[in-house]
Design a protein that fits this description.
The protein is an alpha+beta fold and 654 residues long. It has 24 helices and 24 strands. The protein has 6 domains: 47 residues, Helix Hairpins (Orthogonal Bundle), CATH 1.10.287.610; 226 residues, DNA ligase/mRNA capping enzyme (D-amino Acid Aminotransferase, Chain A, domain 1, 2-Layer Sandwich); 104 residues, Nucleic acid-binding proteins (OB fold (Dihydrolipoamide Acetyltransferase, E2P)), CATH 2.40.50.140; 73 residues, 5' to 3' exonuclease, C-terminal subdomain (DNA polymerase, domain 1, Orthogonal Bundle); 78 residues, DNA polymerase, domain 1 (Orthogonal Bundle), CATH 1.10.150; 70 residues, BRCT domain (Rossmann fold), CATH 3.40.50.10190. Helix 1 packs antiparallel against helix 2, helix 12 crosses helix 13 and helix 16 packs across helix 17. It is globular, with a radius of gyration of 29 Å.
Length: 654
């Protein structure tokens, strides 16, 4: 059982965090300063007496830090997968006359934690089982990982990083674009854990649940896995929920879990059964792929029978045309589904699909709809000979013995999806509601052929509202976002065109050089552009080539008819940063985002880049003592590292 001191520490951390948030972020008080200080002192005393500090404790400060990449590291011993079964009687037979621990098999990202001298020193993802990614900085901001424990030897444990359904739904509720929403908690968690900036990780409410103790020398666990679980709990870790089972009660225990999963807030895709007897489990050894001391139980897939009504052919940016099965709606795992990807021609032919066939469908891992069986097998689907988007010829290609359908037209609109995705991106036209997936759908349906078509999507109002994942509210939000995009500054408009090598910073430099005279810019020669500081011959030629293309100019003219160009007021008297290059990293306190600071620098004639070079004037980082790669590079090159306030004082005169 969790001791009273640990319970009280968790209560205090939670209460003090809420009080701080209310006071500093919401401008309200939920307790007096006197009461806060009293509770704070109580927490300090408990931390001193237990030797433990919980994640999120107000007594410590975990700084945010961005890295350029996550380093890789090999595991000391391979992290194997578990053998699996869906048969409850097989679980009973596997356990035989032994006792075991039956626990949730959580569906997140497996992490290995290492503690030395009572402090977290390393966190590594499972990766491919042999090599993982080092995410120590991110693990420090998980919601419930103890950063300091009372055990001072080397302790290594494994667990699952997860995001609860409640937090998943909360994060998705703040995303307006239906197609930009995260598909499931596991994908959101995986991306959150592996962020290069741990400030983003901290915002995602990632939690860690320990499920295996690898090492803790000098502790007598009395040859019991359960004792190991109790030890991990005593050190402040949340462990996966488990029950002790034998052959007599394991079927009943599985049934209990099956009932609880309906309301369980942590994603789970099954159960894990492990022998409590540590030495017995070790004596069994392992196969090439799995240890023999544990086995996973997967729930039987819920299967429903339905009728195939259509095969939709969905082109993608690679030219691949995917068959998608449309069937009469059925309830699966608590949601209504009516479509499933068939993936390729080989699978389509293997299932012998035909319109009107009786098929059975299920959700793989209780998430992704799939066809399990075709009961009719009429095999009457015609493979399209022309692309549904451009009308170009199609061809079936066999790659690694898998047959797939491709559009052979190099100018197919579906292949231009990246250009449209760039056009609507935040730094370009900033149109919310048009994710890459949504654009692919609109292009496949013939709604969009060029940029100007986006401003006429209201012509397809009825069709869009009826599309899966859309509705009247999503449609209205999209229309509002498109209307907002009609007012745009010239550099963003130029950047949105996707001209090779023309980033937003270069677009601003070109616009500034020509005083926002669009006609002069479109008629400029390569020589003129090459003379602009920071542009050069390669970028200049790309710009000229784009506007020498008659088709590009015609499309750009049609786009100009849809937008109103707003001109930024440049203070010519305040260009004190002209020609200077800066790098911004880490979190900011005085600016809403890095982009806000970047805009201020550029309005004063400066330039912001993503990496430190010999041309960098200074690196702006509030954590000047961090060991981030940018700080190291700046120190190696003798580039000054300044805090946000120092930069504002020295360079902005603020």
């Amino acid at each position: 059982m969790e001791n009273q001191e640990m319970t009280r520490m968790k209560e205090l951390v939670d209460l003090l965090r809420k009080a701080s948030k209310a006071y500093y972020a919401e401008d309200r008080e939920i307790m007096s300063n006197f009461e806060y200080d009293k509770l704070y002192d109580e927490l300090v005393a408990l931390e001193n007496s237990t030797g433990m500090v919980l994640a999120g404790s107000p007594t410590i400060s975990v700084g945010y830090e961005a890295v350029d990449e996550l380093p890789k590291e090999a595991h000391e011993s391979p992290m194997l997968s578990l053998g699996k079964t869906k048969d409850r009687e097989e679980l009973r037979s596997w356990l035989a006359d032994k006792e075991g621990l039956l626990s949730w098999k959580l569906d997140g990202l497996t992490i290995v934690l290492t503690y030395q001298n009572g402090e977290l020193v390393k966190a590594v993802t499972r990766g491919n089982g042999e090599v993982g990614e080092v995410i120590t900085n991110n693990a420090r901001v998980f919601k419930n990982i103890p950063l300091k424990i009372s055990y001072t030897g080397e302790m290594i444990l494994r667990g699952e990083a997860v995001i609860t359904y409640e937090d998943f739904e909360d994060i998705n509720s703040r995303i307006a674009d239906i197609d930009a929403k995260y598909k499931n908690p596991r994908n959101l968690c995986s991306g959150s854990v592996r962020q290069l900036n741990n400030e983003i990780t901290a915002q995602r409410n990632v939690r860690f649940y320990a499920f295996s103790l690898v090492k803790a020398d000098g502790v007598d666990f009395e040859n019991s896995r359960q004792k190991q679980f109790e030890f991990m709990k005593s050190q402040g870790f949340d462990v996966v929920q488990y029950v002790r089972v034998s052959a007599d009660n394991i079927i009943e225990a599985v049934a209990d879990y099956e009932e609880r999963i309906k309301t369980y807030q942590i994603p789970s895709d099954g159960l894990v059964l492990t022998y409590d007897d540590i030495e017995y489990g070790r004596s069994l050894g392992r196969t090439a792929k799995a240890p023999r001391d544990s086995i996973a139980f997967k729930w039987q897939d819920e299967i429903r029978e339905t009728t195939l009504t259509e095969i939709e052919w969905s082109p993608s940016r690679t030219g691949l045309i995917n068959p998608v099965a449309i069937f009469e709606p059925v309830e699966l795992e608590g949601t209504t589904v009516s479509r499933a990807s068939v993936h390729n021609i080989s699978i389509l032919k293997g299932l012998k699909l035909g319109i009107g066939d009786k098929i059975t469908v299920y959700k793989a891992n209780m998430i992704i709809p799939q066809i399990s069986e075709n009961l009719t097998q009429s095999d009457n689907i015609d493979i399209p000979e022309i692309c549904p988007v451009c009308g170009g010829k199609t061809q079936i290609k066999a790659i690694n013995d898998v047959m797939s359908l491709y559009c052979m037209n190099p100018d197919c609109d579906a292949k231009k999806i990246k250009a449209f995705t760039h056009f609507v991106s935040r730094d370009a036209m900033n149109i919310d509601g048009l994710s890459e997936a949504t654009l692919e759908k609109f292009i496949a349906l013939g709604f969009i052929h060029e940029f100007s078509d986006i401003f006429h999507l209201e012509d397809h109002c009825d069709e869009i509202i009826k599309m899966e994942g859309f509705g009247e509210k999503s449609y209205n939000n999209l229309m509002q976002s498109i209307d907002n995009a009609r007012n745009v500054i010239l550099p963003k408009l130029i950047f949105s065109l996707g001209i090779a090598n023309i980033g937003l910073a270069n677009a601003k430099v070109i616009c500034r050089f020509f005083n926002d005279d669009l006609d002069s810019m479109r008629k400029a020669s390569c020589e003129e552009l090459s003379e602009i500081d920071g542009i050069g011959e390669v970028i200049g030629k790309a710009f000229v080539d784009y506007f020498e293309n008659e088709d590009n100019n015609s499309k750009f003219d049609r786009l100009l008819n849809e937008v109103k160009i707003e001109y930024e007021q440049i203070d010519e008297q305040n260009q004190n940063l002209s020609g200077q290059v800066f790098v911004v990293t880490g979190s900011l306190e005085h600016f809403a985002s890095r982009n806000e600071l970047k805009d201020i620098i550029e309005k004063r004639g400066g330039k912001v880049t993503g990496s430190v070079t010999s041309k960098t004037v200074c690196l702006i980082n509030n954590d000047i003592t961090s060991n981030s790669s940018k700080n190291k590079k700046a120190k190696d090159l003798g580039i000054p590292i300044v805090t946000e306030e120092d930069f504002m004082s020295q360079y902005l005169g603020m």
